[in-house]
Amino acid sequence: MNVLVVGSGGREHALCYKFYLDASVEKVYCAPGNAGIAAHAECVDIKETDQQELVAFAKSNDIALTVIGPEQPLAEGLTDLFLAEGLKVFGPTQKASAIEGSKAFAKELMKKYSIPTAGYETFTSFQEASAYIKKKGAPIVIKADGLAAGKGVVVATTEAEALEAAEDMLEHNRFGASSAKIVVEDFLDGEEFSFMCLVNGEAIIPLALAQDHKRAYDNDQGPNTGGMGAYSPVAHLPSSTEEQAMDEIIKPVVQAMIKEGAPFTGVLYAGLILTQEGPKVIEFNARFGDPETQVVLHRMESDLAQLLLNLLEGKTAEVKWSKDTVVGVVLASEGYPGSYEKGHSVESVLEAEAFFYHAGTKTKNTEIVANGGRVLLAAGKGSSVEEARNHVYHALQQINTEHFFYRKDIGSKALKRS
């Protein structure tokens, strides 16, 4: 079959590479793709927001399955258009993608259906938000309601930091329309992990757990980013964690979406935290997580394309996984998640003995250069977290990473707890 992946980041590179390896797939296309994706798929010069062009391409190239990577085209209704044209697509409708597109919608859904999450209130007025923050105290969490590329969350350790974040979003339009409304949430203490499930209505296929590292710098310091690294599996969590999360969170929310008239098809990403009362929801996303997808799919031995096609027909199956651990370390442009320069060569970095997923790269005059904040993810594999970490960090230490930075502690918490 021919498969089309929509998007241009590290998550899409992981999808294209997996489809490239799948026996059921004859040809992989990616629109628009990036410099690394070009090694495993034919990149098509169509932007992920050009809906009519994407549909026309799928029709004219005998595409059996389209997978939509990023959240923006989902929120803009790309899935709906594909479905209207009778094309097979894996991704939620515009209505169902509100579970990511609006934090307030997700919180109200969880409250209505008693799905465990942090207490919260929503605000459009800074004065009202300020009074609530002062009443609650810190630590406390401030979230932009809409899409903000993973950067719209501030975990405030002081009241002053919380007030500044709320003012920045509501008064200074930090994320434009996405922060015209904010969610102010109780701080939850515990171990965070990511649980992605392939979903079609009531049919659910769970994927392996992963743990993301959101903060920019070592020891969870600095601002939130889209993710600076991840690893899978998360072996030190209690064995009952996944089953409990499935029974108390995933299945109830899937049923809730059906009852709300927005049945979910696609990847339901649950950002969870294991508290003393059990797992609770930090956030839901309506697509594959980045960088979790890179480490999870790197371990998948099942044919993903066939798995997705079968799921679209309502059939579930057990996923086969490598027993190895994969640790992924993101190389980001200096200055990220703030302002940064583009155009620096990554050719010397790519000489490292690691598998690289490209997130923000392009080819310029036959040279691969940085074209984004998160540029590459170096993946290392081993029989344990320690071995996988040693592989990837040994590789990165051998190269010149001028103009880029990476965290040195991805997966280190797992070493302490294993």
From TrEMBL:
The keyword Protease is annotated on this UniProt entry: no
TM region(s), chain numbering: none
One record GO biological process: purine nucleobase biosynthetic process
GO molecular function: ATP binding; metal ion binding; phosphoribosylamine-glycine ligase activity
Pathway(s) of this molecule: Purine metabolism; IMP biosynthesis via de novo pathway; N(1)-(5-phospho-D-ribosyl)glycinamide from 5-phospho-alpha-D-ribose 1-diphosphate: step 2/2
Keywords: ATP-binding, Ligase, Manganese, Metal-binding, Nucleotide-binding, Purine biosynthesis
Similarity section: Belongs to the GARS family.
Designated name of the protein: Phosphoribosylamine--glycine ligase
Gene designation per UniProt: purD
